[in-house]
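Quick illustration, no need to memorize.
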Amino acid sequence: MVHHTMNTRSTSAPSASSKSNVMGSDAMGRALRWFAVAGIVGSLFACASRPLPAPPPAPRVNEGVSAPAPGPAPAVQQRARSRWVAVDWRDLPGWGQDALHEAWNALLRGCEKPAPGFEAVCAEARPLSIAGSAEQQAWLQRRLQPYRVTEADGRAPEGLLTGYYEPILDASRLPTATQRVPLYAPPAGLPAATSGQRWYSRQEIDTLPEAQAALRGRAIAWLADPIDALVLQIQGSGRVNITEPDGRVVPVRLAFAGHNGHPYQSVGRWLLDQGAIREGSWDGIRAWARQNPQRLNEMLWSNPRTVFFREDPLNEFDARFGPRGAQNVPLTPGRSIAVDPLSIPYGTPVWLATQGPALTTQRLVLAQDTGGAIVGAVRADLFTGWGGWNDETYRLAATLKQPLQLWVLWPR
């Protein structure tokens, strides 16, 4: 409370002729002050005798209490490689049927590195991790605006969904009679991926003495199968059980650490263009390689890009999560996608719809990664998990290639 005071003091002493008046005024002033004090004390006593009003009850987490609904969102948002067109929630196929709580872990992971504009949304999303799907759905509808993703010029062609996974491989710390295919850490002087400069190509790395000299001592581990090494480089990361010289087997994660600057070229496309295979699957590629060992290097060299890795420890806790994607947060199986960041920013919730022989689904996913082949507006790579060649995660990733529709969910 602000107390207002009024200065009644004169700047000069009173004259003798007015002294009696001043004394009379003082007596009256004391009386008035006594009544004023008595009134204040009485008021305080009355206030103290009345019970204070009860405070409003604190909101419970599962009540979903948050800020009032924001205002209308822009009808169109333009990105470098896409255009977003606002739609109604009813336009999202399958909306309301997804188990949203299964995606909430991926959402909260993305909130570790929130996209610009998502800070307030992330703060509200964290308490909702223990809420039911109905409450999570209501919050999404109130807080976010769905936009259909189209090409930058507004066209809406059929998009493409593929899959990727984290392979689990066996390797040796040192080369052996059977394990002769190296996986390298980045060499000294490797140009930055954004520089546009190119280092030695895959073929030059295998054949030029100067390239091999630059990589001397940079091998992290050695594999038995060159196609395994190629798959690991295409996937961008993997779990490797490395046999050490003393016989111990140490699980590690090899994470993407750079590439040689050359464009990615599909070896499956190279074989298809030659009529060597009828279907560009890894099973078909492996079968062709077994039948044509003399042309194996020719096939491998058709992809000039080589990927380099860093070795990360893989303890029991880290093994429960996927590798870190381009957003630098761990990926969630079935809920993380790789996108073109010039179309959809990292950390953006996305509604995905696809129908095909490998997968039919409409679900909430998070844009948390990218890849050399993931370019364009309606283009995504679904992270399926981790496993070996015979696991379902590999099978789904290997066969997933079908039409796609995307809607970004953006803060209002």
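Residues 1-67 have pLDDT under 50 and may be disordered.
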